[in-house]
Amino acid sequence: TGTVYGRVSIGPLCPVEPCGTTINPYFGKQLIFAQIVNERPVDMKFYVYARLSVNGSYSVELTESNYFVAFSDCKYLGCSQTFPKTIRVETNKSLELNIDIDTGIR
């Protein structure tokens, strides 16, 4: 297996920072890794999920392959421009994948 790790950042969360909101944008969110076979993602039951921590960081071990990366329940404006991503995981190697989602809030 190989390791994919990094941090997802989502922002801005309101027109004027810092926000008065207490809602954590990472709560309950996860990255979805779908292995690519013949240029298509494998069946949904084989997806691998990486839950985000409270600060947006994650780490997941995956078998060597190409993967589509998506984001669960992403309703921010920037999600459609950010996802899906395609990555290559290699055995015994680590891949840092940091993702910035611009919400478009100004």
> How many strands appear in the DSSP assignment?
9
The amount of beta strand, in percent, is over 45%
Mean pLDDT, to the nearest integer, reads: 91
Euclidean distance between termini CA atoms = 41 Å
Question: Any low-confidence stretches, pLDDT <50, length ≥5?
Answer: none
Please give the radius of gyration in angstroms: 15 Å
The amount of helix comes to under 10%
Order of helices and strands: EEEEEEHEEE
Gross morphology is elongated
Secondary-structure class: mainly beta
Number of helices: 1
How does the major sheet shape up?
Answer: 5 strands, antiparallel
Model description:
The protein has 106 residues and is mainly beta. The chain is built from one helix and nine strands, in the order ββββββαβββ. The strands form two sheets. Strands 2, 3, 4, 6 and 7 form a five-stranded antiparallel β-sheet that branches. The chain is elongated, with a radius of gyration of 15 Å.
Summarize the structure.
With 106 residues, the chain is mostly beta strands.
